[in-house]
Design brief:
The structure holds three protein chains of three kinds. By secondary structure, chain A is an all-alpha fold. Chain A contains 14 helices and no strands. Helices cover 53% and strands 0% of the residues of chain A. By secondary structure, chain B is an all-alpha fold. Chain B is built from eleven helices and no strands. Classes of the chains: A mainly alpha, B mainly alpha, C alpha/beta. The structure holds adenosine-5'-diphosphate (ADP) and magnesium ion.
Chain lengths: 334, 258, 282
């Protein structure tokens, strides 16, 4: 009949292989789109590589590292996470870091509102098929309190392997490891981070917290002093606007706490005085100073911006938008 | 009905005798097991990343299986000319098409059942927890998804002559819908104007394949979905698969075979 | 050239019988191929008003050079291609109805059957399509496999079959429903002399069983020996129809000579002959 009739019977073609490769590529690209990096400031802090090739490779790895860091945060929310199409005003910092007291909360608006109100029946029905409620693994997740926070660790590990300079991985990972009672693993993880980022104040701060949890207050104090020195070297020379004041406040407040525990009230007050000019909300610290002077106990450490931000949140979840050292009580869902 | 099931039987036999599905299955199992053996801070209870990897590989495999099984059917029968002796028998082209659909869909369901068993095994060992009803829901929705994809691919295979172009088009539509389907309306609102109306048209007319992907609910141990929602999804999938199949039959019936 | 009436053929008692296979003024046009050069606008006319009837019990040879339109005719009869105009029916039923194909067996030209099936599975598949009851199915499969001498390879995948075996499995599937009418498209093409002889014997045996055989060919030798009637097609037109003996013009000894004359090859031959002193002498 036609010439095709003479053609040999079709054998297995390379089409499936090509298809698979294409699919993998599309999927990875589009997943990258789905979990869009939120943390732009992380990129800016990185030193520039001199070699172009290394830089290109490095940038690819960093993109993925960042992707997996964000993924860890998505896991912290049991899969509830904004995409680039959603309203992300309410999710600018990773809650894993924020809840760990390692990053400043910058969120405005309510996390429940990523998705907005139900727009139509497609949207409404669709919301039954993916996590559409805001929860945190450590308190109100469907399976909270069973140590489910461990689930974020693989992604932090992977991210740290891809980009050892992304210090958030180590500090956040160590925080949640400590919460799971894995103090040795936490310290080991932070030390790995310090190997790649010697003298990093954030990591030194987290290392101190590891020691504090192991009731080694003295070592914790010494490490935090190192962290303070390191911060001065790095951020102290910058303009006030560029400084990472959140970190330094955490360091100084913990130094004060350590001194307090070591029964050195003088030193405790000295650190608090140092913190006043560096704080975003000096009032809170002055209040703290008078409390210590009055002989009240020094326990909970609020990040310095807590007082200023609390008014923005009248929601249940406002409590854990700010750094806390202690697990939150399970919040009732509205 | 016997004619349809006979055609379907050949499709299933072919899938069983070809090696593609086994390769995908063992790749999924292998990658999952290798990742499962990684030591993470000495914590053997960490399970969700493994569930995610396993389910993601399963989803990719299922899309590949569905698209490539269905895309081959009619063109290969044409090319090897087996369509001639088949259609020379007292069978209508619609019956052939329905048989192909049934065969491809059942083949997908069989391979999915194997995949979900693997998944239940891995996650069960890790989590010491077997939410079988949840897994069944995920499996069933996945089967429904495969049904829509198979029907769409069969429709493509009577429209486009080349297997590869059909497979590529269907694959990009399916992946695009999975990832963007949920957001089309928001994009439409932002775009506004004619483009907005166009995107909204797509949003309301295309099948929302992303509904059938409940991976995140399974990975993060969310409570089981309401069965009425699963029922509605079933009707929704049947409606779309039915439309695509009807179009495919209509087109195939009018097509000269030479 | 004399178009003989069916009555003049082998059987004397079939005047009142409806034809088993018939076409009336069948015209088939293929849409112009976009790639073809020159007259790409005009559709390709494969059949130009073909009228043909085949009666019960006869072996009908459908002859014609390559591209004459033989396969196209069969494609219309089997419902693969729809005719541009005209009618075609099998057993008095329009070919557009699938039921018209219940009592026929068809052997396509150059087909590769499902390679991953065994002969047995392939025949079982086709038997199901004919709705052959389960009880009879296995027996029927055994019979046809025996008939085409493939019993020894019944459980081997068709992938491993030789060309001849492929053709035999094709014949087997055409016989699975014990058809009354067989439509065979070039059943001997690509076969070795032994295979061709076997096919010839098979056709003769089918005739003895009272079956009707409609087959196309351009192997004139075999046609001569087995056909009751032949139709000669060229460029989509039926040039001659009748028993082999009636088609021979005076002086012609073989069908081949008649065939060449009928399809119009004669003219060239004559010019060759005129130039050749040898042919003048003869
Ligand atoms: N699918 C098609 N498209 C266009 N032309 C075709 C097609 N099939 C056959 N033809 C043309 O129709 C004519 C008859 O072909 P066919 O019936 O296959 O001849 P044969 O007698 O050799 O079986 C030929 O000229 C062929 O080129
Ligand atoms: Mg032909």
């Amino acid at each position: 009949m036609s010439s095709s009739a003479k053609a040999p019977p079709p054998t297995s073609s390379p089409v499936p292989l090509l298809g698979i490769a294409g699919l993998l590529l599309t999927v990875s690209l589009l997943t990258a789109l789905r979990l869009h990096p939120v943390h732009y400031e992380i990129q800016a802090r990185r030193p520039d590589a001199d070699d172009l090739l290394a830089r290109l490779l490095g940038d690819g790895r960093r993109l993925f590292a960042n992707h997996f860091y964000v993924k860890a945060d998505a896991y912290f929310h049991s899969g509830f996470y904004p995409t680039i199409f959603d309203d992300r005003q309410s999710h600018q910092t990773a809650h894993i870091a924020e809840d760990a007291g390692l990053a400043e909360g910058k969120n405005t608006g309510d996390e429940e509102q990523f998705l907005g109100t139900v727009a139509n029946w497609v949207d409404g029905h669709g919301r039954n098929h993916f996590p559409s409620v805001h929860t945190h693994l450590d308190n109100d997740a469907p399976e909270a309190a069973g140590g489910a926070e461990r689930e974020i660790l693989p992604w932090l590990t992977l991210s740290s392997k891809l980009d050892p300079n992304l210090v958030e991985n180590y500090s956040v990972g160590a925080f949640w490891l400590r919460k799971l009672g894995k103090y040795a693993e936490a310290e080991h993880f932070v030390r790995k981070g310090l190997e790649a980022n010697p003298g990093n104040p954030e990591l030194l701060f987290e290392l101190g917290r590891c020691r504090l949890d192991l009731k080694d207050t003295l070592r914790a104090r010494n490490i935090w002093e190192m962290a303070w020195e390191a911060w001065k070297k790095r951020d102290g020379s910058k303009d006030a606007a560029e400084q990472n004041r959140f970190t330094v406040n955490q360091i100084l407040m913990h130094l004060a706490l350590a001194e307090f525990r070591l029964h050195k009230q003088e030193d405790c007050l000295r650190w608090l005085e140092v913190a006043v000019p560096l704080s975003v909300s000096p009032e809170a610290i002055r209040k703290r100073i008078s409390e210590v002077k009055a002989g009240q106990p020094f326990e909970a450490i609020d990040p310095p911006n807590a007082a200023g931000e609390a008014s923005d949140h009248d929601h249940d979840h406002s409590a854990h938008d700010h750094g806390h050292d202690h697990p939150h009580p399970p919040a009732a869902k509205p | 009905m016997q004619k349809i099931s006979a055609v379907a039987g050949v499709v299933i036999l072919e899938m069983i005798r070809r090696k593609d599905v086994y390769v995908l299955f063992f790749l999924t199992a292998l990658i999952t097991l290798v990742l499962g053996s990684v030591d993470l801070f000495g914590d053997a209870k960490i399970a969700r990343y493994l569930k995610e990897v396993c389910l993601t590989l399963m989803w990719m495999s299922s899309v590949i299986i569905a698209v490539f099984t269905a895309a081959r059917q009619i063109p290969v029968e044409r090319e090897s000319r087996t369509l001639f002796p088949l259609l020379a028998k007292p069978i209508t082209r619609s019956e052939v098409m329905l048989g192909k659909f049934l065969g491809c869909w059942l083949a997908c369901c069989i391979s999915l059942a194997a995949f979900y068993l693997l998944f239940a095994l891995i996650s069960g060992i890790r989590e010491q927890h077997w939410p079988l009803a949840n897994y069944f829901q995920a499996f069933w929705l996945h089967c429904l998804f495969s049904g829509i994809v198979v029907a769409l691919t069969l429709l493509g295979s009577v429209w486009f002559t080349a297997v590869s172009s059909n497979a590529t088009i269907v694959l990009s539509c399916v992946v695009g819908m999975l990832l963007l389907g949920r957001h089309l309306h928001k994009v439409a609102v932002k775009a506004g104007g004619i483009a907005g109306h166009f995107l909204d048209g797509l949003y309301f007319s295309l099948p929302h394949l992303e509904w059938f992907d409940v991976r995140d609910l399974i990975i993060h141990n969310w409570p089981r979905m309401d069965w009425t929602i699963v029922g509605q999804d079933t009707l929704y999938a049947c409606a779309y698969a039915g439309c695509f199949l009807a179009l495919a039959c209509w087109r195939f019936r009018r097509q000269p075979i030479h | 050239m004399g178009f003989s009436t069916p009555i003049a053929i082998t059987m004397t008692n079939c005047a009142s019988i409806e034809p088993i296979l018939s076409t009336e003024n069948l015209r088939v046009e293929y849409a112009a191929l976009s790639g073809s050069a020159g007259n790409s606008r005009e559709p390709k006319v494969a059949l130009k008003g073909l009228s043909l009837s085949v009666y019960r019990g006869e072996v009908f040879g459908f002859l014609g050079p390559n591209g004459a339109g033989k396969t196209t005719t069969m494609n219309v009869l089997l419902g693969f291609t729809s005719a541009t105009s005209g009618k075609a029916s099998l057993f008095g039923t329009d070919v557009r109805q699938p039921i018209s194909r219940q009592r026929i067996g068809y052997l396509p030209e150059l087909t590769y059957y499902y390679k991953f099936l065994t002969a047995e599975e392939l025949l079982r598949f086709y038997a199901k399509i004919f709705n052959i009851p389960k009880a009879q199915r296995e027996e029927r499969i055994r019979q046809v496999l025996h008939r085409v001498d493939l019993e020894h390879a019944a459980r081997r995948p068709i992938r491993t079959y030789s060309k001849g075996m492929q053709q035999r499995i094709g014949i087997a599937q055409a016989l699975i429903n014990d058809p009354d009418l067989l439509i065979l498209d070039e059943p001997t093409s690509g076969l070795d002399p032994v295979g061709r002889m076997e096919v010839r014997h098979l056709i003769q045996r089918l005739k003895q069983e009272g079956k009707t055989v409609f087959f196309s060919s351009h192997e004139l030798g075999e046609v001569e020996t087995v056909c009751d009637r032949v139709g000669i097609l060229a460029q989509g037109e039926l040039k001659a129809l009748g028993p082999v003996q009636e088609l021979l013009a005076p002086g012609e000894r073989s069908l081949e000579q008649a065939f060449l004359r009928i399809i119009g090859y004669q003219a060239q031959e004559e010019t060759l002959c005129k130039k050749s002193p040898l042919s003048l002498a003869s």
